[in-house]
């Protein structure tokens, strides 16, 4: 892939529905798309700089739904294939298992599972179209070295293209296939190896699908490119119970063309997307959005240095991020801290390392003698010293992760603690800034190592440090789901400590109160990020309710 070939977004074309804006370029938005958005407080726009995008029609409060769409097609991923209903995504093995008298499956292919006869009936027309092909996908996947789930997804999209599912009994209709064809495909920027593999697999798949599903091979390749670049996780919680497996399971994936088309990426997003149980994706505001402001989501982990985020987006989504955070001068951006080394002179600022350009070159880094100025006082430090401390910390972190993979948790804990402690002697050494992403990355496995040793007090301390960094650094969005996850975890560990101290009235009560405080904060955040009825919000509310019984 040659990143220098990155081009701007092609304009959305629908000549019939041209509209003139009072200012700015011509807006060309599909009338059907506008109709689908008509119940939400958003306006769809098109500009050369941003392509198609959605803006707030009025001031929008946090926790407002700004788009909800049913996937054109979604699949339950292979590891979960017999664990979730393929229509409503209900768990087939959670707390409610007693209520599920039978798991329904198609007798013919034995590959698709349902929680009820109703769900099975609802999928009948669609499934009948694909059933004879489904059992042969594994062979194609093995022969062509391609993921079976990608083939299952392509098959479903091919069926939706023929509108086999139109006018069925579903109350919410999937987004029509025509919008998939209008998505950016970035084929020219995707690796040639992937295109070759997917071409071979498409030929094989096209040979075995029913006649009416057959497509041009080139169109199938574009379909795969679009899916790979813009699939969304239906991150469905499988149980209201709060065991570890039930959280953040990427058990289902779908293609949501409207969301993909109108919600650009930003490294300082104001919206979150949430998978719902019936294959819908909801876009919700995380904070107040002013009238006319663009509504954006994030496709990536945001507690990461700018170069890493941009590299990630370039590799997975084939574009070079030009969001406000990525284009703010480094010395003024929160990004300076995420790979920051503390200034030895003023102890407040960090030495500013210039960001990489699109071709991967970091200005100045090729000159051994270059130096970096402090963002606060202007004091400079040589490249070798600044880069050296980052490289050493990175290496130590990687070694600790290797230890964890080898299940040497004690040794990993020592290494991670050592890495964190080494950052305390700023006056004599170069040290990492407290918001440096390496330190954040080290805290998460450290907390897990402490949990493994049943050192709950230690784990709580580390969890609080993580929360402090997430909330105060400005690197992640306000009300961001990951803050909710660490609040939930904090509540759980406090609850464990309360149980451990059962009978010691004062201590037990203190940990119960701490747990309740964390769960309450988690519920408030998740109401905004996920909505009141979402299983993630309910699971946190449940922890409060059950602790009171
Ligand atoms: C899913 S589409 C988003 C909708 C897009 N505006 C359109 O008109 O189709 C993703 C594409 O939008 C552009 N894009 C989205 N966010 C961007 C960002 N932060 N910086 C640069 N380009 C971005 C890129 O071209 C990317 O391939």
UniProtKB/TrEMBL annotation:
The keyword Ribonucleoprotein does not apply. Residues 85-131 form the MYND-type domain. SMART domains: SET. Keywords: Metal-binding, Zinc, Zinc-finger. CDD domains: SET_SMYD (cd20071). The keyword Iron does not apply. Residues 1-25 are annotated as: Disordered. GO terms for molecular function: zinc ion binding. Residues 40-300 form the SET domain. This is SET domain-containing protein. The lineage of its organism: Eukaryota, Fungi, Fungi incertae sedis, Mucoromycota, Mucoromycotina.
């Amino acid at each position: 892939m040659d990143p220098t070939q990155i081009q701007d977004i092609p304009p959305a074309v629908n000549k019939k529905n041209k509209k003139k804006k009072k200012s700015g370029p011509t807006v060309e938005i599909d009338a059907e798309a506008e109709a689908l958005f008509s119940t939400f407080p958003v306006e769809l726009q098109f500009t050369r700089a941003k392509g198609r995008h959605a803006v707030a029609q009025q001031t929008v409060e946090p926790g407002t739904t700004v788009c909800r769409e049913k996937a054109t097609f979604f699949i339950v991923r292979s590891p979960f294939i017999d664990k979730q209903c393929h229509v409503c995504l209900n768990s087939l093995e959670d707390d409610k298992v007693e209520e599920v008298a039978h798991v329904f499956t198609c007798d013919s292919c034995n590959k698709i599972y349902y929680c009820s006869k109703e769900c099975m009936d609802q999928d009948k027309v669609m499934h009948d179209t694909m059933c004879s092909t489904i059992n042969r996908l594994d062979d194609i996947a093995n022969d062509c070295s391609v993921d079976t789930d990608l083939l299952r997804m392509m098959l479903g999209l091919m069926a939706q293209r023929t509108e086999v599912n139109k006018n069925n009994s579903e109350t919410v209709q999937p987004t029509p296939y025509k919008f998939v064809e209008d998505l950016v495909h970035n084929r020219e920027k995707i690796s040639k190896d992937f295109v070759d593999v997917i071409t071979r697999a498409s030929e094989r798949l096209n040979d075995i699908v029913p006649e009416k599903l057959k497509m041009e091979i080139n169109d199938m390749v574009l379909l795969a490119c679009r899916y790979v670049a813009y699939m969304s996780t239906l991150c469905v919680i499988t149980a209201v119970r709060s065991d570890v497996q039930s959280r953040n399971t990427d058990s289902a994936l779908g293609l949501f063309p409207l969301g993909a088309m109108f919600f650009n990426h930003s490294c300082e997003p104001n919206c979150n997307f949430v998978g719902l149980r019936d294959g819908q994706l909801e876009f919700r505001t995380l904070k107040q959005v002013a009238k006319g402001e663009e509504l954006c989501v994030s496709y990536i982990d945001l507690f990461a240095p700018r170069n890493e985020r941009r590299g990630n987006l370039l590799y997975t989504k084939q574009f070079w991020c030009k969001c406000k955070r990525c284009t703010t001068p480094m010395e003024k951006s929160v990004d300076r801290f995420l790979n920051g080394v503390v200034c030895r002179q003023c102890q407040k600022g960090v030495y500013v390392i210039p960001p990489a350009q699109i071709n991967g070159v970091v200005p100045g880094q090729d000159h051994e003698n270059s130096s970096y100025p402090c963002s606060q006082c202007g004091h400079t430090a040589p490249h070798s010293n600044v880069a050296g401390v980052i490289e050493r910390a990175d290496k130590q972190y990687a070694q600790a992760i290797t230890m964890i993979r080898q299940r040497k948790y004690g040794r990993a804990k020592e290494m991670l603690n050592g890495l964190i402690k080494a950052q305390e002697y700023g006056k004599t050494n170069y040290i990492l800034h407290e918001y440096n992403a390496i330190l954040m990355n080290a805290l998460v496995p450290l907390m897990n190592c402490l949990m493994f040793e049943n050192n709950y007090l230690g784990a709580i301390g580390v969890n609080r440090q993580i929360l402090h960094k997430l909330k105060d650094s400005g690197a992640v969005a306000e009300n961001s789901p990951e803050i909710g996850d660490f609040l939930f975890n904090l509540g759980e560990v406090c609850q464990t400590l309360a149980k451990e101290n059962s009978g010691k009235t004062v201590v037990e009560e203190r940990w119960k109160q701490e747990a309740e405080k964390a769960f309450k904060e988690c519920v408030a955040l998740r109401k905004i990020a996920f909505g009141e009825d979402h299983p993630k919000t309910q699971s946190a509310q449940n922890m409060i309710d059950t602790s009171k019984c």
